[in-house]
Amino acid sequence: MLDSNKDSLKLEAMKRIVAMVARGKNASDLFPAVVKNVACKNIEVKKLVYVYLVRYAEEQQDLALLSISTFQRGLKDPNQLIRASALRVLSSIRVTIIVPIMMLAIKEAASDMSPYVRKTAAHAIPKLYSLDPEQKDQLIEVIEKLLADKTTLVAGSVVMAFEEVCPERIELIHKNYRKLCNLLIDVEEWGQVVIINMLTRYARTQFLNPNINESLLEEGGEKEFYASDDDEDDEEKKAEAAALAKRKPYVMDPDHRLLLRNTKPLLQSRNAAVVMAVAQLYFHLAPKAEVGVIAKALVRLLRSHSEVQYVVLQNVATMTIKRRGMFEPHLKSFYIRSTDPTQIKILKLEVLTNLASETNISTILREFQTYIKSMDKDFVAATIEAIGRCATNIGEVRDTCLNGLVQLLSNRDELVVAESVVVIKKLLQMQPEQHSEIIKHMAKLIDNIQVPMARASILWLIGEYCEHVPKIAPDVLRKMAKTFTNEEDIVKLQILNLAAKLYLTNSKQTKLLTQYVLNLAKYDQNYDIRDRARFIRQLIVPTDKSGALSKYAKKLFLALKPAPVLESPFKDRDHFQLGSLSHLLNTKAGGYQELPEWPDSAPDPSVRNVEVKDSVPEWSKCTSRKERKEKKVEKPFYSDSEGESGPTESADSGNYGDQAVVALGSWNILKISKTHTHVLCASFTSDQSSGEEQKKERKGVKQRRSGSESESEEESESESSESESGSEEDSESDTDTRKKKKVWTHAHHPQHCHSQQFLLSTSVAPTSSPQVTPVNNFLSSSLASDLEGLSLTDTVLAPTTIAPSASVRMYELLHRITGEGLGVEYCFNRQAFSPDPHMVAVQIHFTNNTSCETKNLHIEEPKLQSGMRIKEFPEIDMLPAGESVSVVMGIDFCDSTQAANFQLCTHTRKFFVSIQPPVGELMTPIFLTENEFKKEQGESSHLHHQPPPHISSSSPMLK
After folding, report:
1. Last residue of a domain, one of 415, 430, 445
2. CB–CB of 749/672 below 8 Å?
3. Each residue of 128-157: b (16+ CB within 10 Å) or e?
4. Coil, strand or helix: which one is 489?
5. Per the structure, how many domains does the chain have?
6. CA 592/CA 589 separation, integer angstroms
7. pLDDT tens, 850-888?
8. Is residue 796 domain-resident?
9. Of 71, 400, 481, 917, which has the fewest beta carbons less than 10 angstroms from its beta carbon?
10. pLDDT tens for residues 393-405?
11. CATH number at residue 891
12. Is 528 domain-assigned?
């Protein structure tokens, strides 16, 4: 069928072969017949051939090499699936000789227009790296290129390639950090897991510990507690207290907060691996107050398959050691079901034990009483051990637990009794003098208990506290001497210890028994027992050859021993990254990357700043102002802040047919039909009801009364929202636009016109804002008096004599921290720029906050949109420490709100900055007297009641 000339037969054959491969059957014998069809023109056949070749190309390398030219042709195929499959097959041929071909193919695929092909290129990078590690430098270049890809399909794959090839090159992530955080929610599930794990390690190297202040307070408290036993100087204590008091409060980095905020929604993912990845990220990176959000998501995963439960419970058990309060509200979710596998039961027991406290211990102990009745012996033994741990950690229930364990000594099940003995032995070490009756009771059980560990525990207790049972201990030794040869090794060692202790405390009764036991041990098969017997004989039975050590035999054998601390086996697992294989196995697995420690000082956050390249709108690409004027305005634009004049204006526009009325605040901009010259006429709206006028007039008076208060509030709110490099200029431009909608602009026209006529430049679009700001009513009677006070004289702008106006808002261009002590602010002083009247004057204010002088302040490498120009300020040779200086530069924004980007340079550093103008700063005011204003108002009111007259190019309305 594969040799047939019919594509339908080939397709049927390939479907059967791929089905065999999917079922796990070996189809490698068909490789020669399949590889011949790689040149088939049928797309469906070619896809299945590539699927087969990906599976067997590594096994049949010689035959695959014969078709390598076909694979190379496939890289140029118009179909993206064929290109990706060809690259996948090529990277599966693990032969060193084709490394250059693979490298070239990967580089070409990394620039492919299809994101699916670029994703395949990212998958091929680790394969090529494992084949030839010397290609690492070239592969890093490809990875750097793919990391800049904004497609969600590529992000996860390239981060995986980064982790495999160059995880130490953390600087490659700096510029892409914010992009990865923002794309994370849309990346495929397994890509999300890889990116989150990588960002966890990245954040541990770039941000400060959010819990640093809490940990310092805890350490300080511990030092004070233990210092009470030592004689320390008061001066040292005062110095430590002063150091804690002087430490700056922690402020979370915005990029740190961005990571936490963008990963939080993924806790609701359907993929358990994604939820676990976010949980470990929050555990390792989030402040203690915010870690609790992961508890509910992890509890949700406990309803999944047992394999998922096992992994989740392993991580929960580790979390509950340090963050117990996080899971306490979900205590019942960890109750054990009879259908749970044994390993799940034991892990849930571990979690319940970690969550036990004085408030819930009674509930937990009732659960444990039920678990002891289970038929699963391993589970019962683990429950008894958990009871012992609860008794150790919570002193209030110690006696209760001990009594319950003693009752278990009469259980029919020998394993239950044995485990109870072991746990009781550990509990008795805390208060042996109060429980001598329990020791006697356990001594009577020595004949019935056959479990070696339990017998050894009883013998150790009797030997350790033989002074509490002086009559029973020798008799127990007599019984043990009879069965010494038949006991297990662990029991024999405890018999030797018991004999030695009784010989030192009661040698009259036990001297012969001890010698008998030592003689038996002398010829035992186990060399540990023989060695222990020789050691004890020389120590407790002194001879002429015995050394000085025998004098201290009692101190050696009968020394007080500290009570054992029953700890969780998960106590020290948190040094492994949660969710990793190393954490699951509690040992370092191959390829595991250690979780970095928090840095002592915060690294420079500016390394993650990316220069934003805004796309240039079509209207801003015009080479001349005339062309921009002639561009057609297709749709009317309604500002969000105007809700009253909209219906009236839209009705008017409907009467004019192809004429459009655009509402901008209280302005009406009328576009004449396209058969005439395009002119924008601005007029005041006068056809409103008298009731609305009175209402607005009262509102204007009220605003003037509270002008100073609102002005100060607006300034404080705006100052708090300014960024270091002008990244938030958009919102500021919106605010300034609303403040200056009453300002008019001159339209750039070659002819001179009457000074009373005015137009709004077509190149300045109104800026909408979701926030409605009250605007002073233009119909207010007090506006005319305000306008009369304006100065009508033209002033010449001198760069050396300008002082910043108190009413002009200052914007931050370079923060003093980012600028390493150099702070730069700017403002639009709203005066003419004498070198070029078409430019906007921008006043730059430099402040040197350092202790040394700054030299050679100047501008370099302006990056401007089409049509924009910059007139640089003269270079400042030197700015002394603590001094300030102001200069003026001119910028022609080409009637657009696009930012002007350039480098601000000193003699040592260069800083990327940008100036983005609010719309209002691009407008020039026209000054009118009260009579002129009323006359213009009367003329403009007729536009709403009759069609506009024909306006020719020589009309006095044109500027």
Report:
1. 430
2. no
3. bbebeeebeeebbebbbebbebebbbbbbb
4. helix
5. 5
6. 6
7. 888 889 899 988 888 888 889 899 999 899 988 999 999
8. no
9. 400
10. 888 888 888 888 8
11. 2.60.40.1150
12. no
